Amino acid sequence: MTEEYNLSVSPHIRKKESVSWVMWMVFLALVPAGIAGVHIFGWNSLRLILISVISAVAAEAIILFLRGRRVALSDGSAALTGLLLGYNLPPQVPFWLPVVGSFFAIAIVKQAFGGLGRNIFNPALAARAFLLISWPVYMSGYAKPFSYPDAVASATPLNLFKESKLNLAEMGLNYWDLFLGRHGGCIGEVAIYALLIGAIFLLILRIVSLHIPLSFLCALGLFSWLFPAQGFAKGDPLFAVLTGGAILGAFFMATDYVTSPLTRRGQIIFGAGCGIITFIIRRWGGYPEGVSFAILIMNAFVPLVDRWQRPRVYGRGK
């Protein structure tokens, strides 16, 4: 009597989670930060976020149609890209800016490389960098918290630190203000507590791990402490971590499956590289913030990191 064997290709360990489930869970995890951003900067922020999400989804549908592909938007990747781009915008930019940014993110950074899973760079961050380089005045104009509907102009803590060499007390702020988002900044990056709620949610679901975020933030804090700015006796690692887009970038954009390394050691190297480059740009670069450019630079090195940290085949020597 012969036995019948079923042969199949790897992977043989399967999970119920799908790509669309992961995308929508990340989208859900970002909702608290959006609610906090609207509360801090007003209803105009909500309109910008919605325009960004709708524009990204529309751009995805148009490009898929032109490519002759099935227009399936339920995976949530386009919506998530639009949401992240909206969170990376100042609260008072004109409404056409997220439209242009969303089209660039989807058409140029994602679909031009073949679509989901084939893009080299994080689409939302690449779009933010494109907008920042193209329209720096709009992308560097921040509103004072709770100043709506008049939207009084305000500098971010990183701007004040880089340009005026003010410490936290001289800015009229404390660490609690940074944690709650009581300062100027982009819509979705200022409320640290809301971002951490979403991050904990993703960690519980095991959608992300601490390898990239922890190495990112530790490297940024360590180098900020080791190399204080001129005129300061010591560095302030907590200020470095709680300001700008460090938390948003570390937990929600550097951890993107497509543009981050596969192995755990590779992820630690990637995260540390992001933190170090962020510090270098903040301290000696032309921009007060460096998270977006740091992650994009490390995105380009991911293939090399994966090749360097290739896991050993089971049963073979090194």
What are the main properties of this structure?
318 residues, mainly alpha, two-stranded antiparallel ribbon, 14 helices, globular
What would your notes on this structure say?
It is a single chain. The protein is mainly alpha-helical and 318 residues long. It is 58% helix and 1% strand. It has 14 helices and two strands, in the order ααααααββαααααααα. The chain has helices at residues 19-41, 43-66, 77-87, 96-110, 123-134, 136-139, 157-164, 175-180, 192-204, 211-226, 237-242, 246-253, 264-284, 291-308; strands at 142-143, 153-154. A two-stranded antiparallel ribbon has the order 1-2. α1 runs antiparallel to α9 (192-204), α3 crosses α4 and α4 (96-110) crosses α5 (123-134). The longest helix has 24 residues, at 43-66. The radius of gyration is 21 Å and the shape is globular.
What's the mean pLDDT score?
Answer: 90
Biggest β-sheet, characterized?
2 strands, antiparallel
Tally the helices: what do you get? 14
Helix content: 55-70%
Contiguous uncertain segments of 5+ residues? none
Strand content: under 5%
- Secondary-structure-based class equals mainly alpha
N-to-C terminal Cα separation, in Å?
Answer: 43 Å
What spatial order of strands do you see in the largest sheet?
A: 1-2
What sequence of helices (H) and strands (E) makes up the elements? Answer: HHHHHHEEHHHHHHHH
According to DSSP, the number of beta strands is 2
- Tell the overall outline: globular
Overall radius of gyration: 21 Å
